[in-house]
Amino acid sequence: MIINAFLKALGQLTDSRFLGVLGLGVGLTIGLLIAFYAAFVLFIGWMLPESFALPWIGEITWVDNALAVAGIPLMLLLSIFLMVPVASAFMGIFIDRVAGAVEDRHYPGLPPARGLSIGEALVDVAKFLAVLVGVNLVALILYLLFAPLAPLLFWVVNGVLLGREYGQMVALRHESAAGAAAFRKRHRPTLFAAGVLMTVPLTIPVVNLLVPILGAATFTHLYHMLNGTRARPSRSG
Question: Which residues cross the membrane (predicted)?
Fold first, then answer.
């Protein structure tokens, strides 16, 4: 079911509405990474003197520039961790557009979605980001203690969190808060597995830029599949 939902989402990636959201999402993500990189370079410039001298070597003037260049791969590495909260924020901002595009193509007989107001989405995202950061800070101790297992732990921890959040946000478009919570609890194992499926490619630089929109579409399909909503038969060609 999860693979089927993901393949349906992948098959719609060239949809004009998807491409519009994808462009916005990629632009916002790259802008965020550039902002972090600029902050890193400014911090290095503030911390290090422009030049200093060492015995037998003489004046050193290139350390800050070298560190600034080294900051580029550092930002790519940092993007692995940044993309998890970015994916959550993306979900809150663009869920209605992505889910609406999926439902218009695959589930045209549905009644209009309740949708989420900007206020509702921002409050939900803010709460989730606080939980996400807090849990990952605690999990950081486990990552350090069990370094060889750190990637697996990262996938499991964030798979649980993202599966919960994406499942909740998709369900809220059609149900009350109580109904969405009941849906999430009823299908916890499936949502967890889908969350892990989304978390793994989030750790791959560049590829992770595509994951938030595919995740939103995949979870939209999952919601309707789990609720027994009949999809429109795929059109060939």
Answer: 21-48, 68-95, 116-135, 141-163, 191-217
Q: Kindly list the distances between the CA atom of residue 147 and the CA atoms of 46, 134, 137, 151, 153, in Å, as whole numbers in the listed order.
A: 32, 20, 15, 8, 9
Contacts of 95 (CB under 8 A, 6+ apart): 116, 121, 169, 170, 173, 216
Ramachandran class of 26: left when φ > 0, alpha when ψ lies in -120 to 50, beta otherwise: alpha
Locate the domains of the chain by residue range: 2-12+78-226
Q: Give the C-alpha separation, 182 to 25, whole Å.
A: 30
- Give the residue carrying structure tokens 């990552």: 143
pLDDT tens, 45-89? Answer: 666 555 544 555 545 555 555 555 666 666 666 666 666 666 666
Indicate the residue type of 94. F
Taking each helix axis as running N to C, give the angle between helix 118-145 and helix 150-172, from 0 to 180 degrees, rounded to the nearest 10.
170
Output 208 or 74, whichever has higher pLDDT.
208
Distance (Å, whole) CA 133 – CA 135 = 6
Burial class (CB in 10 A: 0-12, 13-18, 19+), 53: exposed
